[in-house]
Amino acid sequence: MSDLKKVVLAYSGGLDTSIIVKWLQDEYQCEVVTFTADVGQGEEIEPVRAKAEAAGIKEIYIEDLREEFARDFVFPMFRANAIYEGEYLLGTSIARPLISKRLIEIANETGADAISHGATGKGNDQVRFELGAYALKPDVKIIAPWREWDLTSRKTLMEYAEKHGIAVEKARGKKSPYSMDANLLHISYEGEILEDPWAEPEDSMWLWSVSPEKAPDEATYLEINYVKGDIVGINGEKMSPATIMEYLNKIGGENSIGRTDIVENRYVGMKARGCYETPAGTIMLKAHRAMESITLDREAAHLKDELMPKYASLVYNGYWWSPEREMLQVMINQSQEVVNGQVRVKLYKGNVIVVGRESNTDSLYDDNIATFEDDAGAYNQQDAEGFIKLNALRLRIAAKKRLK
């Protein structure tokens, strides 16, 4: 890649990407364009402009992508009720296709020859970034410094920064021992103490939620309003997708909602332990399934559940832009045409409890049929005898042969 003239870097302004800027300039003798995305990580991102300018960057992209992230990535994923290995709500995974998309768009806008990222060679993010980039621009060149350089520890990174005069913010107070990633959907914690899967994380680690022991003794009730499978308002107040998630994160965190401690199977082959806080996502998943429970046909609902693990794996492994994920999404979106109404949930000390659901237009729940009281002929119980005998026919045939 010695002929590279311009590279677009996914830039956070932290230690790693600050070093990557200088490394790219020296190793490839190229111009660097920086791209910083606000996907709801809860930090002020505008200060990275000054850092980029100090590094000699002339083209600096800093973008608020919170609404696009929630609307076009998180909400479609939650229509599928996607959850990886029974526990992980895919908070990091779902942000990567959006970042890949903007990296490619900016590369096209600026005439860049390549893109670059700061993901390590051990994790899933390198796969997600690069699969997305190749799907959107097949001939794109990708530079992954962690797979090329010999800077293998924080100590060597700090030495490189000092040698090249790269400003690194000094830690204020006690440095967090965890590697963290945050966006509108979640915050994750990995590394150090958590690398021992037997060790319980300190309560001070959790940043978004209180512990169940410290949560209020009074339950919090929410009425969540749905149109075509997406939340459109809470307690009757219409909100944008990003605003909905911000609100649910706040109210969920106050009630200790969304903490998980997981050992997951990474796509690259290793097991890794991570802790996650996903308050909004935990509420959204529970409420959405409740909304579907009265509006989706039984077989449609069961088919969605059968396909969901495949969908979740595609998101986790970085195949958001694949034809198979897009094909599944069409089916999922079609199923959501009837998912309209309200769900009432109770939040209490880490629990999301569904206490009501209704749909004035699309409910398939018929209390005249379901009742234990007199149904006035709405359901003929004698019909069940033939239904049972027909379904038992193969079992009876096999049993007769066996008993002979």
Walkthrough of the structure:
There is one protein chain. By secondary structure, the protein is α/β, with parallel strands linked by helices. It folds into three domains: 6-76 and 90-163, Rossmann fold; 179-358, Argininosuccinate synthetase, chain A, domain 2, CATH 3.90.1260; 369-403, no CATH class. It contains twelve helices and 14 strands. The protein has helices at residues 15-28, 48-54, 66-79, 96-110, 125-136, 154-163, 241-254, 279-295, 298-317, 323-335, 367-370, 383-403; strands spanning 6-10, 31-38, 60-64, 114-116, 141-143, 179-182, 187-190, 220-227, 230-234, 237-238, 259-265, 271-277, 341-348, 351-358. The protein has a five-stranded parallel β-sheet with strand order 3-2-1-4-5, sandwiched between helices. β11 (259-265) and β12 (271-277) form a beta hairpin. The protein starts with 5 loop residues before the first strand and ends with a helix.
The low-pLDDT segments are: none
CATH architecture of the largest domain: Alpha-Beta Complex
User: Could you tell me the strand content as a percent range?
Assistant: 15-25%
On the 0 to 100 scale, the average pLDDT is: 94
According to CATH, what is the class of the largest domain?
Alpha Beta
**Main sheet specs:** 5 strands, parallel
Total number of helices? 12
| Tally of individual domains | 3
Distance between the termini: 76 Å
Proportion in helices: 25-40%
CATH superfamily label of the largest domain = Argininosuccinate synthetase, chain A, domain 2
Radius of gyration: 25 Å
Shape: elongated
Order of helices and strands: EHEHEHHEHEHEEEEEHEEHHHEEHH
Give the neighbour order of strands across the main sheet. 3-2-1-4-5
